[in-house]
Queue: 2 jobs
Job 1
Amino acid sequence: MLEGKVALITGASRGIGRAIAIEMARSKATVIINYLGSEDKAKEVKEIIEGFGGKAILAKFDVSNPEEVKNAVKDLEPQVPSIDILVNNAGITRDTLFLRMKEKDWEDVLRTNLFSAFYVTQAVLPYMLKNRWGRIINISSVVAFSGNVGQVNYATAKAGLIGFTKSLALELAGRNITVNAIAPGYIQTDMTEKLPDKVKEAFLKEIPLGRAGLPEEVAHVAVFLASDKASYITGTVIHVNGGLLRW
Ligand code: NAP
């Protein structure tokens, strides 16, 4: 389904990004696994992909650092003919009530979850413009729409990604590049594992499907959006949340 395409997935060493990398590789894309701190885990993802005959390249860089992003994408040039699919997935949380929120908690979350999309997309876009084909997928969150106590920084960043998605989709539509967002609900990863049990239980009670989602359940949507089957979808948000938020 993605044969001949190269996909860069940020934050692909763990969680949702890892699942997206594996599922895109299963669909025959060459996958660039970006990571920052989890080198062993990133290598493990590469091994899994190569284990089923897929192609994967490791790329360590900090998505929140514009110079690092530029240099890393340039360094990839000799290894890949182009970058056709970009998944802006890397993210962090620094949860705390707004009254206690330090400027650093605000800045780190905005830089890693939102500014990163600007840096990485700008670095990768020339490839897509040249090919007159591209897929940009931004991983937002249900909290962009619902808000959440303790997550003013995170919800702001994730809501920012929605405006980014919709506006960039308009600018790039004429170039045959689609830009969409996925808004996951409560998905089983390290990010949600560290939530207090009380918060987890409260979430589960609110989810009509009665369980947390799996990273693969987000990854399948990303594969679809990256494929030719999604050629008429742009500027939209797909919610993957077990019914947590209804429209
Ligand atoms: P996770 O398990 O904590 O994994 C986060 C990933 O992001 C890791 O691979 C990490 O890499 C990478 N990362 C963090 N900071 C980075 C940086 N500065 N540069 C490069 N990579 C960086 O998180 P997750 O749950 O899979 O979340 C993935 C995305 O989905 C995030 O954007 C998150 O906000 C969003 N999301 C998650 C949920 C959920 O319920 N889990 C719900 C809605 C939205 P290293 O470990 O190598 O540093």
Job 2
Amino acid sequence: MLTVHTDTKVHKMWSENVPAARAKSGDTVRFETLDCFGGQLKSEDELLGGLDWNNVNPATGPLFVEGAMPGDVLKVEILNIELGDHGVMVGAPGEGITGNVVCGEVTKILPVKDGIIKFNDKLSFPVSPMIGVIGTAPKGEGIDTGTPDSHGGNMDCTQIGAGTVLYLPVNTEGALLAMGDLHAKMGDGEVEVCGVEIAGVVTVKVTVLKDCKLPTPFLLGKEKAMTIFSAKTADEACVGATLAMHSFLMKELGMGDHEAAMLLSVTGDLRVCQVVDPEKTFRMEIPRTVTEAYGYEFM
Ligand code: CA
Ligand code: CA
């Protein structure tokens, strides 16, 4: 199986990045990923302030997918996420929503064994692996891997895990898929600015879709379909995610404007992905029973 290693990584998603590897539509590819600190924090004595910020948020890739042309959609089936044996968390004044209520910088190493994260002597949690950074090259100027936008990027969406399907826009030939920033677990919002940051290996199947009308990024879970939207403010991201799903319901399911709005008001769950990155990300979730009732088949 084609493997993209961590020695080929980018810190900006950009149409001019040199491809790390090439795949055909329908291929399965493994991406080895570093944690969001680029593996720099190896002990609790190493703090956020000592980081080389040029090496933060590395995304492995980019993968050139043959046949992908601007206007297409790249279907990324997330088949598996393997995690390393420990995660890292950091906290510091000024970081995240809790940045004003913590003193001094702290780094915490969290052992991860047999699918369990040890948080402290009293608390352990099952892992809930997710991909924080995943995207294609955006239109025009490159976008740093710490920022989410319409190309995907640092969306920090807890739902992007194994068994889901992520639809991303193709803005440049080959799509140039890159990913990193795995979390062993994260709460919606990522309020302190990090999840349980961890290295790992992601296995995906990539397929080029022609004439796919889904608003992107779009995520398909086993029971939910989700539009994901990032914007400068949380308010704008809420509106964007909601209207993207409203548009999907009208254009793809043929619902009327009020009917679609009412459906979202009744069954749609507007949820936060993260509010700590340069752009904020929200998602609108609807149950897949809705698309099933209309006989809609996802590509
Ligand atoms: Ca992130
Ligand atoms: Ca992260």
